[in-house]
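>> Question from a student workshop board

For tomorrow's exercise we were told to take the sequence and the ligand below, predict the bound structure, and bring the output to class. My setup keeps failing. Could a helper post the expected result so I can at least see what it should look like? The ligand is 6-O-phosphono-alpha-D-fructofuranose.
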Amino acid sequence: MARRISLTQYLVEQQREHGHIPAELRLLIEVVARACKTIAISVNKGALGEVLGSAGTENIQGEVQKKLDIIANEVLIEANEWGGHLAAMASEEMDSIHLVPNRYPQGEYLLLFDPLDGSSNIDVNVSIGTIFSVLRKVGHHRGISEQDFLQAGRAQAAAGYCIFGPQSMLVLTVGEGVAVFTLDREMGSWVLTADRVQVPADTREFAINMSNMRHWAAPMRRYVDECLAGQEGPRGKDFNMRWVASMVADVHRILTRGGIFMYPWDKREPDKPGKLRLLYEANPMSFIVEQAGGMATDGRQRILDIVPTTLHQRVSVMLGSRNEVERVTAYHREAG
Ligand code: P6P
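>> Workshop helper replied:
Here is what the output should look like for this input. Compare the format with yours to find the bug.
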C-alpha cells in the first residue's frame, strides 16, 4: 500500500530522488490538480448547479459542446495563466492555441488538455474526466506558435488524467512510473493511494465500440473475432468486453486490472485515421500506459513516436496490456 502522502509531498520527494521535477513543473502539476478539484465540484453538482446539457455551440471537431466542456476549459485556462510556468495552452475546445497574456510572466512549458473527456456521458451520470499533457517549449524564442506544440509524445515532460467517478482520482506520470491520488473531500487534498502502477501484460478483457464492427479493417475484425470465439477459438480462452465511451474510464480500468482499449480506423471516413486526438488524448494516455509497462500503438507504430503535423490531428489507438497490443499490431502489420 502506498504511503498516504499529499501530492505536494510526492512531487517534492520525486524531485529529491530523481531531480526531474523543477519548481516550474511542480507548480504546473499542482495548479492543474487544483483546477481538477474545481472541475470535480462543478461535475458533482450536476443539475443542482445548472451545468448539465448543451451549451448550444460546436467545437473545432464539429461536436456539440456541453456546458461542462466550456466550464472545465475556462477553469483550466484561468488557473494556468498567472503562474509564470506556461508559455501557452492548447485545448480540444479551442480552435487555436491560447498564449499566456503579456501581463503575466512566460514559462518554459506548454499545456495541452481535453478539459472534459466523455461529454456524452455527462447527462447520464457516467464517469468522465480531464486529460492533460505537458511539453517543454523547444528553443528560447519569444513568439509561441502552433508549431511549438507539434512534438512527438515521447517528448512529454508529464501527463495525467483526472477521473470524476465514484471517487475523484488523479493519475500522473512525470516519466518515473505512474502514481494515483484520490481526492480527500474532507481535507480538499489529493492523497497518494497507489504508486508504481503496473498494467498486467495479459488480459481477458477488451474495450471497443462494437457497433462499428462492419466498418473496421480486416486485421481489427480478425483480432475481435478471435476474442469472441473464446475458448473454442484460436485464443483458447474466453474474453469479456467493456465500453464506457469515456476514454478516461476505460483507460483507468485497464490501468487498474489490465485490458486493451481500441478505437481504430474505419471506412466511413477513410481519410480520418481514427476518432481520438493525438496531442491531448492519445499521447498523454499512451505515456501513462507505457510508464505502467503497457504498450500503445496506432496499429503500426508506437503512438509516442508519431510526429504531429496539426494541433487537432486524430489517430487510431490500441493501448493497454502489452501482449494484446503486440498481437493486434502484428495483425495490422501482417495485413500491410
Ligand atoms: P463512441 C468521448 O467522446 C471519446 O472521445 C472518448 O472518451 C471515448 O473513448 C470515445 O470518444 C467514445 O466514442 O464513438 O463510442 O461514442
